[in-house]
Specification:
Layout lengths: L4 E3 L3 H7 L4 E2 L8 E4 L4 E8 L15 E9 L17 E3 L10 H6 L1 E6 L1 E8 L7 E9 L5 E11 L6 E11 L10 E3 L7 H5 L6 H6 L9 E5 L35
Parallel strand pairs: 2-5, 5-11, 6-11
Antiparallel strand pairs: 1-3, 1-8, 4-5, 7-10, 8-9, 9-13, 10-11, 11-12
């Protein structure tokens, strides 16, 4: 699963890298080194201009937008927003058929930029209880991760306001990080960004073809401070490698990157 991640890119970086045409993120663009479920997260998505009618959407070019969404997808048919707490991730293997996700998978897809994500590995202690060590996992080349996501709009029955929410699609972990956890966020390759964001692409089989497994050798992981366990802790120091951490499968305790 993916339950925590980091994003420290600037507004300009995100707009330029993802070719954003409409900046609708407001003051949500700020470094966040401990992003957790139910928080506002930044997403790139494409929608036809609001002033166009639904009948004309098919012929009107979609506008690529940067928006703030609540992490934890709330389906349009949901009676209670709390369902989103259980829908922070969607499995790539079944996302196209699950009732909570299949409509969004067909036409409401997004990209969730990230520096990298956190995962916890259970470490054995001599004579003591097992402890969970957090690791930070990121692209080796330092590029932004474009995590595959879905978004939904949910209308509150109480105040008739629209709530924008999202989920992260996960897949089998690559060899680089599989020793830490068997799942990881699905990353969309830059060559597939246009197709993934295209709301006119509704053929489920074609969309599924865009979900390709992570390539081995592209990710690196290193142990970080357990301060990340508390969502109240938030700063660049959370990304600093430990010098005495232990990497799963290695005899050395040097904390060297994979």
């Amino acid at each position: 699963m993916c339950g925590r991640y980091s994003l420290s890119r600037t507004r300009r970086e995100l707009i330029e890298q993802f070719h954003v045409q409409l900046d609708a993120a407001g003051d949500a663009v700020r470094p966040d080194y401990n992003i957790a479920p139910t928080k506002e997260v930044l997403a790139v998505l494409a929608r036809p201009p609001q002033e166009e009618t639904h009948a004309a959407e098919a012929s009107v070019p979609a506008v690529r937008q940067l928006r703030a969404l609540r992490w934890g997808l709330v389906p349009s048919w949901a009676k209670d927003v709390k369902i989103g707490n259980r829908l922070i991730n969607a499995r790539a293997e079944t996302v196209h058929e699950k009732p909570s996700f299949r409509r969004a998978f067909a036409k409401r897809r997004c990209l969730l930029p990230a520096d990298g994500f956190y995962e916890w590995y259970t470490m054995e202690r001599n004579g003591g209880r097992p402890a969970k060590q957090p690791f930070f996992i990121r692209p080796r080349d330092g590029a932004v991760m474009a995590m595959a996501g879905l978004y939904e709009l949910w209308r509150s029955p109480e105040d008739d306001q629209w709530l924008w929410t999202c989920t992260i699609i996960t897949t089998q972990a690559s060899d680089d990080v599989g020793r830490i956890h068997d799942r990881m966020p699905m990353v969309v390759r830059p060559d597939d960004w246009d197709a993934w964001l295209d709301p006119a692409l509704t053929d489920v089989a074609r969309v599924r073809d865009l979900l390709t497994p992570a390539m081995s050798g592209t990710m690196e992981a290193y142990p970080v401070s357990r301060a990340v366990n508390n969502v109240k802790n938030n700063g660049p120091e959370l990304l600093q490698p430990l010098t005495d951490g232990h990497i799963p499968g290695e005899n050395s305790g040097s904390g060297t990157l994979f």
